[in-house]
Structure formats: C-alpha cells, structure tokens
Design goal:
Layout: E1 2-3, H1 37-40, H2 43-61, H3 76-89, H4 91-94, H5 119-128, H6 144-164, H7 170-180, H8 183-186, E2 188-189, E3 192-193, H9 203-206, H10 209-217, E4 229-234, E5 239-247, E6 251-255, E7 261-265, E8 269-275, H11 289-300
One heme C is lined by residues 86, 89-90, 92-94, 104-107, 109, 113-116, 122, 125-126, 130, 133-135, 138, 150, 154.
C-alpha cells in the first residue's frame, strides 16, 4: 500500500469545481466501452508481442538465429488464412481435420510433430519437403508469408489438442461460470457481463490451463496495473474504494464494486491509497478441485477460433 498520485499527466481538469461526491453514472447501459485495456497491455501481451519483435531484431543482425525466431504471422487472421490454405492444398493427404491419413502415410499434425518443434521448423519442411516421401516442397511461387500462416495454423492445432487434455469438463465449467460463480458480475463474455474485470471472451488463447487455475485460486498473484484499485479518503474521513478510471493533477475517478463512477477533486481528498491486490475473490475455498478443473476447461475453450 503506497500513497500515490499515479500516472499524473498534464490534462486540464474539466470538472474541477464540481465537487460531486455522488456523480454516479450508471454503467448498466448498453453503450459498449472498451474496458479491457488492462488485459491487452498486460505483461502477457508484452511478452507475446514484443518478444518476437526482439527476436526479429536479432535475426536481422545475425541470421544464424533463424530457427529460434518467433512466427510473426500468428494472429487469428493469419491462423484462419493458414487454415483455408491447408484445406485446399494439404487436406487431401493430412485430412480436413489435419488428423492424418494412414493410407497415404501422412501423419496427424494436431499433436507434437516428429520433424519440427517450431514454426521455423515447419516452414523449412514446407519449403524443402521431406525427401524420399510424399511430402513435397510447396510450389516456390507461394510467398513466404503464406507459409508462415500455414505454420501458425499447424501450431494452433497442437494448442487446441492440448485443450482436450485439460482434466475438467468444459460443459460443467460453463454451467458453473454462468450460474454459480457470479463471474459475469465482473467479467464480460462475448459482449455480456460486467466491467469490473477483464473481458474473458478469448482468455483461452491468452492464458494456459495452469495460469487459469492460478487466476482462480490466487487472483492477487499477478495483477495488471489496470486492475489495481484506489481507496480514497475525503476530508471528513469517509472513504471509498474502486478501480482506478483516470487521474490527473486535480482529480481522481474510480469505479466502485457496484460499477458506479465517482469523481473527486484532489483538493477534497485527505488520502489516496493504492492497492495492487486483485478485487476478484479467490475461489479456492468456494469450489472443489474438480470444479476448478471444470472452470479451467471451460475458460481454456474460450478462443477466437472456437467462439461462434
Ligand atoms: C501427397 C500427400 C501430402 C500432401 C499433399 C502434404 N503432405 Fe505433409 N506429409 C505427407 C507425408 C507422407 C508426411 C510424412 C513424411 C515422413 O515424415 O516420412 C508428411 C509430413 C508433414 C509434416 C511433418 C510432420 C511431423 O510430424 O513432423 C508437416 C508439418 C506437413 N507434412 C505439413 C503439410 C502441409 C502444411 C501441407 C500442405 C501445404 C502438406 N503437408 C501436404 C504427405 C503430404
Ligand atoms: C468482484 C469481481 C470479480 C468476480 C466476481 C470474478 N472476477 Fe475474475 N477477475 C476480476 C479482476 C478485477 C481481475 C483482474 C485482476 C486479476 O488478475 O486478478 C480478474 C481476473 C480473472 C482472470 C484472469 C484474466 C487475465 O486476463 O489475466 C480470470 C481467468 C478470471 N478472472 C476468471 C473468473 C471466473 C471464472 C470467475 C467466477 C468463478 C471470476 N473471475 C469472478 C474480477 C472478478
């Protein structure tokens, strides 16, 4: 807990004089407001997006590291493009679902591959073929970008098949999520739910099953700054907590647990205390291990590719 005036900026205060303690604005309205910035700029995203760029940089300096470079064509758009190319060019041997074909000897591509362990390895197979087998090199006219998209698609298959290996039942997890857990009070799923936590619509492609389990049993373990909260104490000693909406030199705005927005001029505040704890309760005691596994299976199934 630290006193702070976080992220001060030079913005001119618009409502400096309006000391409205209860400037409660209902956020129940259907106005869609992007509020998942926290999750987008979380450490996870930084590692996910900056790391390949960093590697690319090294790659430009020394191409000896090519095999280690991350695939920069791995957005959902690329994966979908890779899939449609696969269905046209590769499915006659590997099968429409990429699960292989014994007659042709084309292996299942949805698990761990025997001849490649990275996108770069898959790329090489596609460019060069596997000599002495039916696996021929792809037409040299096909641009590199398309092969990286294919590689991204194939890699996405092993992530999807990993979801099958998750212990719990996604169906049971879905029911827990919708009926028991109050998860939707705080989280959005495909446009429905609350704003007091990150949007979970694609959480399965952002967090692994282990990370999801941790998020449920020990929410405060890792909390992105977007989800830190502030406790404001006014000059009368009355305090109120909420998620930090924005701050400038003259005012502080928060959203409380009922999703109400509150605006305080700094001059009216005695103390501002920041907490880096999660506002999400731990579900370790609330759910059995099996139920946690079920919730994780459900959350892990939430991906852009599989959400209708
Ligand atoms: C004519 C049939 C055929 C076509 C078409 C074909 N493959 Fe293959 N592919 C094979 C066979 C057979 C192997 C196994 C070669 C070996 O390892 O002995 C293979 C192996 C592979 C492997 C290595 C698998 C591993 O476990 O390491 C990858 C990756 C692969 N193919 C991707 C593709 C992609 C992507 C396409 C479409 C551009 C494609 N293949 C088109 C027959 C085919
Ligand atoms: C009181 C509001 C609240 C409730 C209820 C709540 N959460 Fe959360 N949840 C949050 C907040 C805030 C965060 C972000 C801070 C953190 O990482 O703990 C979060 C984070 C998460 C994360 C990690 C997301 C990420 O991007 O890292 C998952 C997964 C999650 N919640 C699932 C659930 C599930 C499942 C339930 C219901 C069983 C639930 N939450 C109930 C507020 C809530």
């Amino acid at each position: 807990m630290v006193f702070s005036s976080l992220f001060d900026n030079a913005q001119q205060p618009r409502h400096q004089s309006a000391y409205k303690l209860a400037s409660a604005i209902s956020t129940e309205s259907s106005q869609p407001q992007p509020c998942d910035f926290g999750s987008r700029f979380s450490l996870h995203y930084i590692t996910r997006w900056l790391w390949p760029l960093l590697v690319l940089n090294l790659f430009l300096v020394s191409d000896g590291l090519a095999e280690d470079a991350g695939n920069l064509y791995n957005t959902n758009f690329d994966i979908n493009a890779g899939r449609s190319y696969f269905e046209k060019q590769c499915s006659r041997c590997h099968g429409f679902d990429a699960r292989g074909n014994d007659e042709v000897g084309a292996p299942n591509l949805t698990g761990r591959l025997t001849r490649a362990s990275s996108s770069a390895g898959i790329y090489t197979i596609l460019r060069e073929g596997i000599s002495g087998t039916a696996m021929m090199a792809v037409d040299p006219q096909v641009p590199d970008s398309q092969l990286w998209q294919l590689a991204a698609y194939i890699e996405s298959l092993s992530r999807e098949s990993a979801s099958i290996a998750v212990r719990g039942s996604a169906e049971v997890g879905r029911a827990l999520f919708n009926e028991v857990g109050e998860c939707l009070d705080c989280h959005m799923l495909n446009g429905k739910g609350g704003r007091l936590g990150p949007d979970l619509s694609n959480i399965g492609s952002d967090l692994s099953p282990d990370e999801l389990t941790l998020a449920l049993i020990d929410p405060s373990e890792k909390v992105a700054p977007r989800w830190w909260s502030l406790t404001l104490e006014d000059k009368n000693g009355v305090s109120r907590s909420g998620l930090r909406m924005n701050e400038d030199s003259f005012s502080v705005r928060i959203m409380d647990a009922d999703s109400q927005l509150w605006s305080y001029p700094r001059s009216a505040l005695r103390r501002v205390v920041r907490s880096e704890e999660s506002t999400m309760p731990s579900y370790a005691a609330r759910f059995s291990d099996t139920q946690i596994d079920d919730l994780v299976a459900f959350l892990y199934s939430l991906r852009p590719e599989t959400t209708p």
